[in-house]
Design a protein that fits this description.
By secondary structure, the chain is of the alpha+beta class. It has three helices and three strands. It has a single domain, classed as 2-Layer Sandwich (GMP Synthetase, Chain A, domain 3), CATH 3.30.300.130. A three-stranded mixed sheet has the order 1-2-3. The two termini are about 15 Å apart.
């Protein structure tokens, strides 16, 4: 079963590559949705600026998806970047179907 504390523990490992600080310490995670019955997890996050370099934005989104997908009971992970100039493109790419 998916536990919110486990999700947060994994998110603590996601570090902004430019600054070297976890995204949780920077309060960039806006929402964590967990459907325990289905095994679905949705993470919504933002950056301090809408012009964060896309390569960093994509890396952070990918790190979130990878780490959360490793948790026991997780079947799907959806990562949603908001308020970024390339949010639509990054969200589309990061949420392509990948088998865990």
């Amino acid at each position: 079963m998916i536990d919110r504390k486990q999700v947060i523990k994994e998110l603590n490992k996601v570090v902004d590559p430019e600054i070297g600080i976890p995204i949780t310490d920077m309060e960039l995670v806006d929402e964590i949705k967990i459907d325990k019955e289905k095994g679905d997890v949705t993470i919504q996050f933002h950056f301090t600026t809408p012009n964060c370099p896309p390569v960093f934005a994509f890396k952070i989104a990918l790190d979130i998806r990878h780490l959360i997908s490793q948790l026991s009971g997780v079947k799907t992970v959806k990562v949603l970047l908001k308020d970024h100039v390339m949010a639509e493109q990054i969200n589309k790419e990061i949420n392509k179907s990948i088998d865990f």
